[in-house]
Amino acid sequence: MLTRLSIQNYALIDSVDIQFNRGLNILTGETGAGKSIIMGGLSLILGQRIESRYFFNQDRKCVIEGYFDLADYQLEAFFEEQDLDYERETIMRREVSVDGKSRAFVNDTPVTLNVLKALAERLIDIHSQHATLQLDTESFQLLTLDSVAQNQSLRARYEGAYRGYKAVLSQLSTLREAAQKANADADYHQFLYDELAAANLEPGEQEELEAEQQQLEHAEEIKRSLLGTVNALQEQEMNALVLLREALHQLQQAERYKPDLAQQTERLQSSFIELKDLSEEISRVEQGVILDEARLVEVNERLSLLYALQQKHRVDDISALIALREDLREKLEAISSSEVEIERLEAEVKRTEAEAVKLAGQLSESRQSVVGNIQEEVAHMLHEVGMPHSQLQIVLSRFTGNELRASGRDEVRFLFTANKGQPPQPVGKVASGGELSRLMLAIKSLIAKTSALPTIIFDEIDTGISGEIALKVGEIMERLADHMQVIAITHLPQIASKGDTHFKVYKMESAGKTATGITQLEIAERIQEIAQMLSGANPGEAAIQHAAELLGK
Q1: What residue stretches are annotated with the RecF/RecN/SMC N-terminal domain (predicted)?
Q2: Same domain flag for 213 and 323
């Protein structure tokens, strides 16, 4: 409930701080005193917009704070979803700077205006004579049925089942679309994969083939060069080995007489041995070089295939072709596995749909069971408030087939007539503003007995009624306040007298400016205020006595 409202620098308000209580809180005051301004300030923390020209002092920012006791509202999930700290006493604050920039906070955490509005809608319901369109909405009408039938737990179970069903259905739809697209490309992908798979691609193969091709194309030149090398080393009459052997012999002769040449002799001998081995190795290489035209044709054909595949797929090397082959393989495997997954999801859709349909059926039965009771209770309360011939007719029907919505399988219409002999019509088409206000009051009073409703604010919904009817409206508000916090702005003494707490809104002069103030009235002040509401600014003894009687004093 709303425990405190602080308004700083808004319109005619310099500063007000209102401490609301449980039960029925009454606000009264002369026309133009500022009651609507207080509601305007409250609307800022409900997410409404503001312009800086509405500031009391154009040099200071406007700050509105609402303090709420959240004990009865089960809002922990909302706070977690919005990544906010949940506190039983939560403060919603709105600040508007002089340049018109606005900031919103929940428990000192900055939030968007949409988050502020979403939270406020769970906490406060402002109801005025002109704000009765809610009555004609299916969501409110289903809320009425579910509240009276105490379907909170059942509806939560259904909504969970429905969300699960829709989630699986969405997964299935997405997978089917992907599978349909994949199947459309499957034949082409299979052709490409088969072509690449048949090529038996191996990493590094292209480089090896290109090197082999180079050798095969120049085999004769390579063989000729190798033979020339061997001839120079050991085949010619005066070859390198013969000359090196003669040099070694001469050096060995000199070593006989000069022993310190041993190291040079050893090095020359090593060179001779190494050169001899090298010559033999080159000779073996030369013998291995073969002029193989058939192999050259084979290599050229293989390379032509690799080059053609690279050009076709617009890649630069064989590793890219291998990666493409593996990607195609995965796509083809995914098509196969998606068929299995589609079958699984189809079965899951049937299971979750059956569960949701079952719970929706239970909701329908429960709602239908309270239709008659709601119609009778509302008719009884409307009779109390001067509408003896009024009739609320609730038409509850199911959608065709197994169609499901977030609220179930039911379609509901509230039909209403306030006049005898007139057939019921949709609520918004036949009822006047005053009739709609009393109908809403009756329905909200009925809902409040079974549900934790947000704080409800009645903003002058008593227009057009008086006397005994006004007294009955006040009694219904009084009963409603047994189950929830009610704040009522009224001009009627009969309603004002039913309040548990009474505030008076007034105008005053402050520093040469007119300002709006508010004060909580004690019993004597209440008697005086209600007497003035009965007879004017200077009430007589009879009016004071009547006011005391209304207050039970």
Answers
A1: 1-510
A2: yes
Tell me the CA distances in angstroms from 113 to 45, 292, 497, one per residue in order.
9, 83, 37
Is 215 part of a structural domain of the chain? yes
One-letter amino acid of 415: L
- Residue 18 is inside which H or E element, if any? strand 13-19
Which ranges constitute the DSSP H helices of 218-261?
219-230, 240-257
Quote the CA–CA distance of 86 and 106 in Å, as a whole number. Answer: 9
In a domain, residue 252? The reply is yes
Whether 66 and 207 map to the same domain: the answer is no
Q: Enumerate helices (H) and strands (E) in the chain, giving the number of each.
A: 17, 15
Alpha helices in 2-86 (DSSP H): 35-44, 76-81
> Can you give the pLDDT at residue 455?
86
Residues 91, 227, single domain; the answer is no
Contact 457, 129 (CB under 8 A): no
Same domain, 80 and 198: no
Is residue 54 located within the same domain as residue 117? yes
Residue 438: both structure tokens together:
């009393």
Write out the two tokens for 202: 């191996």
Per-residue tokens: 543: 């009016």
Task: Report d(CA 434, CA 165) in Å as an integer.
Answer: 43
Residue 219: give the domain boundaries. 182-335
Residue 82: CATH number of its domain: 3.40.50.300
Domain count, the chain: 2
Q: Specify the pLDDT at position 246.
A: 87
Cβ atoms within 10 Å of 28's Cβ, excluding its own: 26
Q: Using N-to-C axis directions, what is the helix angle for 318-384 and 152-198, rounded to 10°?
A: 160
- At residue 11, the pLDDT reads 87
Q: What is the pTM of this model?
A: 0.63
pLDDT along the chain (553 residues), means of 10: 92 91 92 84 84 75 93 87 92 89 92 91 75 74 91 92 94 85 74 87 89 85 86 84 88 89 91 90 85 86 90 90 89 74 90 93 94 93 87 89 87 90 82 76 82 78 76 88 89 92 89 87 93 87 91 84
SS3 125: strand
Domain endpoint, select from 276, 306, 335: 335
Q: Are residues 86 and 215 in the same domain?
A: no
Question: To 10 degrees, what angle do helices 467-480 and 433-448 make?
Answer: 30
Q: What is the predicted pLDDT for the residue at 386?
A: 83
